[in-house]
Amino acid sequence: MNETFQAIKKALKSAKTALIVSHIDPDGDSIGSMNALAIFLSEMGLTVDHYSQDGVPHIYRFLPASELVKTRLEPNRRYDLLISVDASDIKRLGEKFKPREIAKLIINIDHHHDNTSYGDINYISRASSTAELVYNLIKALKFKIDKKIAENLYVALITDTGNYRYENTSVETFCMAIDLLKAGVETHSLTTRIYDTRSLSGVRVFAAALATLEVTPDHTVAWAAVTKEIMEKHNAKSEDLVGLIDQIRSIEKVEVAILFRQDADKIKVNFRSKSKVNVSEIARRFGGGGHIRAAGVTIQSDLAVVKQVVLAEVFKFMKASKYLV
Ligand code: 5GP
Ligand code: MN
Prior knowledge:
Blueprint: H1 3-14, E1 17-21, H2 28-43, E2 47-51, E3 79-85, H3 99-102, E4 103-110, E5 121-124, H4 130-140, H5 147-161, H6 171-182, H7 187-195, H8 200-210, E6 214-215, E7 221-226, H9 228-233, H10 244-249, E8 256-263, E9 266-273, H11 279-285, E10 289-290, E11 294-299, H12 303-320
Parallel strand pairs: 1-2, 1-3, 3-4, 4-5, 7-8
Antiparallel strand pairs: 6-7, 8-9, 9-11, 10-11
């Protein structure tokens, strides 16, 4: 067993209580990894709370342990351990509690290459998903992966790999998937829930958002901008737009896809690239981050201003990198 696993094992052995935290605006990897860890640690005998400031997107609520996710923490509650999942920076845990005050020890489990190593123990490794790391940890500790854990890890795995389409999909990813199937995962039932169960209003807002599509003359960069008005008209939540940016990226010749979404006084910007551009570097220039092919940032400004400055930076970056636009 490597040093990191040994340190985590020791920390888990001496802890009685743990708080597991997903990142803000959580995705499938964050929710699935958090739930899987919560079930695992409860089975190990710890008293566990798991918390997501922005709750659980509707599409992941069927997952075992989602029903126990807290969106508020008791004001004076303290924990022996805080385990963060899929959060590259401590700020991504939200601003409603102080991680350093709430727990004696922080374990940071993440697969982002730009993770700031903010934990006391950092299990950071390049993998398809944080779920792959949680899986490796449970295996290293020689614990059985039951169906409830497996379902959470499976959904986390498919959502971060685009159902095994992205280049982060590896031999390890498929080996893990086989193991999860052996533990009782029914792929058809889970993929139907994730990819084929959309709300009608979700599809309508998707269409309205796609109608804002713009492309550069050479079709290498494409973007959509979703205003508050569009979201309100369809009574939509951010989760209704999941997959939109991938649709934009799927357009022939598009290398970089961008989605601008107005949310109160902030603009959420998501980036995707197809096979060449490092969009995490572009996001980083605005204070955000992420992966090479999927990144994001939140900027406090007007939609028109954000669109202008971000697009200018993308064009500049692409010219400099010889992906001319
Ligand atoms: P998504 O486009 O799915 O929201 O995010 C893709 C990736 O970009 C995520 O894995 C996350 O790491 C990163 N990301 C998205 N939004 C932000 C943000 O506001 N700040 C930072 N640092 N990273 C972000
Ligand atoms: Mn992830």
